[in-house]
């Protein structure tokens, strides 16, 4: 039997996570490039508990060790194994100009500058609501992406549960939509947005506090051309954010945007999301751009389950948490889902760890 | 009723195609940017028969006309309509450096140069097999994309029915896979590849003629880590290329790459493909990068159904046919499909037109 299969089996036992041979291979390939655990998570595109379990098993089997700077390094036995299996160091050809997004944030540099200026006193990400802000370059690229797909100008747009990124603010600031409604559970963000809307005279934009676990009232359903969201990756949260986002769409041809990460959910979970989108909800996926969304490491990182289960205590040095940018299109017969959601496993399950 | 809904209904009747309000909106937005029909198809991301039916209906309703240079232009009535509805010109923020792919072809410039040099006498795309070559920049970017996802080095790779793009040749030329098998129905391409493999001493690569309508023999099934393909967009061809590609994968964690276009199939069809991938075939979709693959307009364009049904006779001026680049990952329990396929509607159906 291939030794990676055995290592994957052991990691499944140790971490109670879904990993397979390829997951172990990706961790080894990442370890040939960096000894930093958070960079390894980033390069291997695995949930933190999965990457952590694999590293622990590599150490247990004498294939890796942690040096006194908390770098994870392969032992001679580990090096022999990667050589024998032909595993090579991770390589990255992401475009330096657009940071791999395909759409450079500086394509509208005035807009980028205004967004930076307006948001310099933005509220900090807090743990209560699984917040984590993307970089301003990400937020601006999101808006330009929407514009280049015909989903911005003179559209009625709802941004739901993603305002830690100030995406709704950026959408409104572009001054291109017909109307913008921002809803979020965090009153700090709603107040911040509304103050800026007033200050800049953006009369077509408003923000209001809403807990997405609750169903929308009828007057919110079927009213928008485009929704934007950034859900936690549990199945209940996916329904609450994306199912409810789809329910706000006015008609077929309506469009949804959201981030989904492989850092808090596995490719196994992704398949479930995708099957649900294309069969139950009746939408088509038109774009999945990996590593589009770069997240600034949240201040509360040391308190997260991720930090707790990591094989090292050293904090992340730079950006390590990224998500893919999805665009979906609602087709005739699409489903408007709007049930209540219980609190259980809303933010956290066996694959998630960054809450 | 919104006038676009009525126009969409009429286009459905005229063209016997699946279009909706949004499709009409996209054509109008494109017409504000260009009068060239093929550029309008490109910008509106619609199948040729759909874009053509919409343009014909716009003309019929006095909203557009064809001028004596064969440019499609909006009439005053058409301009009034777009103003009333708030439709604005198509915008494009694609990165100039990587051509919007996220991976720039020049990231390995020596490889790009060698590929250009080696392929300068490549066989031309012919109509018999629905061929159309992508640009060399596209082919090289495909290989770099695979490398950056850990799907190239020391992998056993099969490239099936995509050799008009010389993707298999490029994969072998990278000298990074363990083995490369190229199969294609076109003997000219197979001979071209094998001659170069011999000339360059690429002993781990070989090419052979195969008609993908036929099932693979058992010795081809479950033998590869990665497959690459570029199927025609009919449902039978999708099964023959992608279903059979998945069947060649050795194990869970195996990876597939292929192009899928919205020029020969609608977003409605895409949803069917995606539902089939994630439910029936048991794979997850990890990437969909729109407009990754740029196709050089084929010499036989004037003989295609696309040219026949277009509202103008003028030929395309530049690149207008693009496809998205898909990456999929086979999960535990994935299905190996390997049935025989009949000749009916293999290359062409109501949405396809470029064969």
Question: What is this entry, summarized?
Answer:
The structure is a homodimer of 355-residue chains. Chain A has helices at residues 3-15, 21-31, 37-44, 48-60, 76-85, 109-118, 136-148, 167-173, 187-200, 235-247, 267-280, 305-309, and strands spanning 64-66, 72-74, 156-160, 179-184, 205-209, 226-229, 255-260, 283-295, 321-330. By secondary structure, the first copy, chain A, is α/β, with parallel strands linked by helices.
Oligomer: homodimer
Head-to-tail CA distance between termini of chain A: 37 Å
Describe the main β-sheet of chain A briefly: 7 strands, mixed
Number of domains of chain A: 2
The CATH topology of the largest domain in chain A comes to Rossmann fold
Which runs of chain A of at least 5 residues are low in confidence (pLDDT < 50)? Answer: none
CATH architecture of the largest domain in chain A: 3-Layer(aba) Sandwich
Task: Report strand % of chain A.
Answer: 15-25%
What strand order characterises the main sheet of chain A? 5-4-3-6-7-9-8
Q: What's the total helix number of chain A?
A: 12
CATH superfamily heading of the largest domain in chain A: Vaccinia Virus protein VP39
Q: Structural class per helix/strand content of chain A? A: alpha/beta
Mean pLDDT of chain A: 93
Helix content of chain A: 25-40%
């Amino acid at each position: 039997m291939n030794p990676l299969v055995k290592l994957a089996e052991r990691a499944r036992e140790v971490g109670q996570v879904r990993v397979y041979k390829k997951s172990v291979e990706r961790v080894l390939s990442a370890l040939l490039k960096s000894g930093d655990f958070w960079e390894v998570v980033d390069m291997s595109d695995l949930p933190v508990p999965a990457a952590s379990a694999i590293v622990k098993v590599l150490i247990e089997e004498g294939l890796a060790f942690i040096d006194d700077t908390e770098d994870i390094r392969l032992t001679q036995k580990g090096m022999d194994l990667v050589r024998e299996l032909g595993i090579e160091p991770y390589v990255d050809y992401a475009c330096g100009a657009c940071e791999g997004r395909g759409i450079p944030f500086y394509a509208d540099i005035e807009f980028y500058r205004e967004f930076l200026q307006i948001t310099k006193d933005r509220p900090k990400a807090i743990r209560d609501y699984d917040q984590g802000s993307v970089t301003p370059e990400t937020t601006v690229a999101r808006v330009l992406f929407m514009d280049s797909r015909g989903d911005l100008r003179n559209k009625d747009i709802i941004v739901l549960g993603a305002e830690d990124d100030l995406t709704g603010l950026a959408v409104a600031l572009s001054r291109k939509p017909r109307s913008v409604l921002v809803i979020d559970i965090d009153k700090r963000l709603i107040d911040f947005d509304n103050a800026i809307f007033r200050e800049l005279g953006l009369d077509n934009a408003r923000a209001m506090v809403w807990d997405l676990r609750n169903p929308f009232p009828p007057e919110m359903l079927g009213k928008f051309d485009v929704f934007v969201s950034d859900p936690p990756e549990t199945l209940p949260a996916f329904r609450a954010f994306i199912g409810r986002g789809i329910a706000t769409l006015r008609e077929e041809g309506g469009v949804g945007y959201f981030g989904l990460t492989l850092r808090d959910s596995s490719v196994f979970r992704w398949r479930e999301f995708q099957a649900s989108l294309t069969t139950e909800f009746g939408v088509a996926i038109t774009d999945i751009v990996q590593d589009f969304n770069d997240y600034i490491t949240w201040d509360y990182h040391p308190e997260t389950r991720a930090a707790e289960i990591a094989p090292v205590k050293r904090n992340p040095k730079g950006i390590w948490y990224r998500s893919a940018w999805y665009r979906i299109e609602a087709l005739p017969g699409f489903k408007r889902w709007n049930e209540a959601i219980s609190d259980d496993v809303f933010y956290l399950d066996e694959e998630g760890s960054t809450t």
